[in-house]
Amino acid sequence: MREFEKIKRLPPYVFSIVNDLKMQLRRAGDDVIDFGMGNPDQPTPQHIVDRLCEAAQDGRNHRYSLSRGIPGLRKALCGWYKRKFDVDLDPETEAIVTIGSKEGLAHLAVAITSPGDLILCPNPAYPIHPYGFIIAGADIRHVPMGPDRDYFQEITDAVRDSWPRPKVLIVNFPSNPTAQVVDLDFYVKVVDFARENDLIVISDIAYAEITFDEYKCPSIMQVPGAKDVAVEFYSLSKTYNMPGWRMGFMVGNAEIVAALAKVKSYLDYGTFQPLQIAAAVALNGPQECVEEIRLRYQSRRDTMISGLHTMGWMAESPKASMFIWAKIPDEFKALGSLEFSKQLLIQGKVAVSPGVGFGSYGDDYVRIALIENEHRTRQALRGIRNFLNAGSD
Ligand SMILES: Cc1ncc(COP(=O)(O)O)c(C=O)c1O
Fold first, then answer.
1. How many C-beta neighbours within 10 Å does residue 327 have?
2. Ligand 1 nearest atom to the CA of residue 98, by list position
3. Which of 70, 216, 252, 290 is most deeply buried (CB count within 10 A of its CB)?
4. How far away, in angstroms, is 214 Cα from ligand 1 center?
5. 140 phi and psi, to 5 degrees?
6. What is the DSSP string of 175-209?
């Protein structure tokens, strides 16, 4: 049996335990309602798909594209940053297109880290945040996240207690999985902290447009001087229901953009050009679809939260993202998130993601992705109630 050092550094995928069980139940004929993966269920808005089809008919678009992305798309992205955040970015030097932000994050890790570099990463986290760097050979210093934690104290302690000193700080707000949000003042402090401690900041705002009620998501790029220390990832996957298109971006510090561009120039030729042309239409075109998508998640959130509250599961209502990060009710806490998720699946026929899959500090929680419509959500609430009632008897 061959052993590969890199592969040995990747632990077994916790989510596959719940996924396998879900498939087993479905094969046995059970109707499982699935809130597991953050995979938008709705189609891409029609005007974007129409532009893709049109561009795909043009043979000139069938050639290799540019690994940094076509200029029109980089311009469209910079236009979005200007309109949304009043931030000026140079599409030539401060913006790059990636094959989904996941690819960009992973290859950025390859571009800027060497074996032994230390990365400050949230825990719980979206898995590519730590594992992109682990694949690149770096080491992770986990920053525990949660409502009772003082973030700046945590990162101050982490820097003080680490040698070699950390090189990179990852921030992701609205957070996957915790749905935690921040205000601009938070980023002002992050930029100061990064300067003082000679850190590169990688921000991920994949859920920038999936915000609820009055909350508006800021960008680290709004902080004066952020470009000295930071880059930021954005993605069309959630904003425009385009997860399968693999369309992401990184903006910010020109040296870091150039480093990613160089690695990518060896690895890929850019996404299929019609996808990039249509992605520019998504960013430049009518934005009513964004509001519709936002409101759909908001109303699913309200249905799920009010249903959970009615049965006494007082999960916090998220201000953004497509997730509810629900603390496991006290009487089930001893099960841990994996066993709780398995029991909920077997008895309630509802799939959620165990918090421990996002990191050990997530084990008191499960993540509920708002990817089922309201009818199915109500149906799922009945299953959840039956499970909770049976369990607490
Ligand atoms: C926080 C976060 N970043 C990045 C991604 C990946 O997005 P993309 O589809 O652009 O690779 C996701 C997807 O769920 C995410 O939750």
1. 16
2. 10
3. 252
4. 23
5. -105, 135
6. -TTT-----HHHHHHHHHHHHHHT-EEEEE-TTTT
Pocket of ligand 1 (CB under 6 A): 38, 100-102, 126, 172, 176, 204, 206, 235, 237, 243, 248
**Segments in the chain forming alpha helices (H):** 5-8, 14-27, 46-56, 71-85, 100-112, 128-135, 151-160, 184-197, 236-239, 254-267, 273-284, 288-310, 336-343, 374-391
Please identify, by atom number, the ligand 1 atom nearest to the C-alpha of residue 105.
4
pLDDT at position 15: 86
Question: What is the token pair recorded at 222?
Answer: 């709004």
Is the domain spanning 47-284 CATH 3.90.1150.10? The answer is: no
The tokens describing 305, both together, are: 């939260």
Q: Which residues make up the CATH 3.90.1150.10 domain(s) of the chain?
A: 5-40+289-391
Sign, Cα dihedral of 385, 390, 392, 393: positive
Q: What is the mean pLDDT of the chain?
A: 96
Ligand 1 midpoint to CA 226 (Å)? 22
CA distances from 209 to 26, 59, 224, 240, 257 (A): 34, 34, 22, 9, 23
pLDDT digits (tens, 9 = 90+) for 240-261: 999 999 999 999 999 999 999 9
Please give the pLDDT value at position 148.
87
CATH class of 5-40+289-391: alpha beta
Residues of the chain with CATH 3.40.640.10: 47-284
